[in-house]
Amino acid sequence: MMQVECIIKLGGSAVTAKDHLETEKLDEIRKFAELLKLQILSERRIILVHGAGSFGHFQAKEYGVAQGYHSNKGDAQNGRAKMGFCKTRVSVTKLNHIIVNEFVSQGVNAVGVSPCGGWVTDHGSVVQSDTASIQNLLVEGYQPVMHGDCVLDRHQGCTILSGDTIIEKLCSVFEPKRVIFLTDIDGVYDKPPSHPDAQLLPVIKVTHDGCLSVPVATTQQAHDVTGGILKKLSTATSIVTESKGFTTVFVCRINSSAASNLITHGELLGELGTEIKMQFREDV
């Protein structure tokens, strides 16, 4: 597989109003599309993945899609989970269409790529992934735009495949120099950002056995079925350790100076954000 320069995750909170059903942040999407166009013109190879936010999470929670339908709940409950699978997919692909349409309007050759069908899990772990199609699109000069999705699961019938899990698999295949999580806040804090004493963590170092150099207290919205910030930290830790420090993970606010610097130059350059990287022995 080819190597890409970076993988960018557009967080659900960055591109949607997570508390309001199916409400996109169109201004944020459009501003990011303008920045993305400049990177494409510079012939940088980037893979984009976006979260679902208020598209999909509500339906998935209501119908219990993440728990699947291979169970002893009875035909009615299992049938309900299957209908939830379909309704959740309608919602998440709607957001993907909105985002891709904005990119195309800016002159970006963006193509939406849904994991459903090509990606399969077993107990939630990815056992089949269609990464070849992503490479084919990149080779031909297209910009793949993936998203969190409903997928088939060999054990429980179906589940939710988060954008973070997708990125983790993509990193193992495409070996990017950096992964950038774009959110609605400036980075990772030592406690929930709403807390008056919350402090932004500019650097989090990860040991070879996956331990973080600083403690992080987190919260999660009730309808978030993909793990919230805990999942993102787990994903970031895995990416850094599995790459043996080759890939650095960054978290910052969408359309900020930090985001522009990271995408264009590969560094925060003093702007607000969090860098998650390997702790080597010389750092101790």
TrEMBL record:
Gene3D superfamilies, per database record: Acetylglutamate kinase-like (3.40.1160.10)
Top EC class, one word: transferase
InterPro entries found in the cross-reference section: AceGlu_kinase-like_sf, Asp/Glu/Uridylate_kinase, Fosfomycin_R_FomA-type
Listed EC numbers: 2.7.4.26
GO BP terms in the entry: terpenoid biosynthetic process
One family name in Pfam for this protein: AA_kinase
Reactions it catalyzes: isopentenyl phosphate + ATP = isopentenyl diphosphate + ADP
GO molecular function: ATP binding; isopentenyl phosphate kinase activity; kinase activity
Keywords for the protein's UniProt record, in alphabetical order: ATP-binding, Isoprene biosynthesis, Kinase, Nucleotide-binding, Transferase
Keyword field contains tRNA processing: no
Domain Aspartate/glutamate/uridylate kinase: 6-244
Annotated site (Transition state stabilizer): K18
Family recorded in the similarity comment: Belongs to the isopentenyl phosphate kinase family.
Protein name: Isopentenyl phosphate kinase
Source organism: Patiria miniata (Bat star)
Organismal lineage: Eukaryota, Metazoa, Echinodermata, Eleutherozoa, Asterozoa
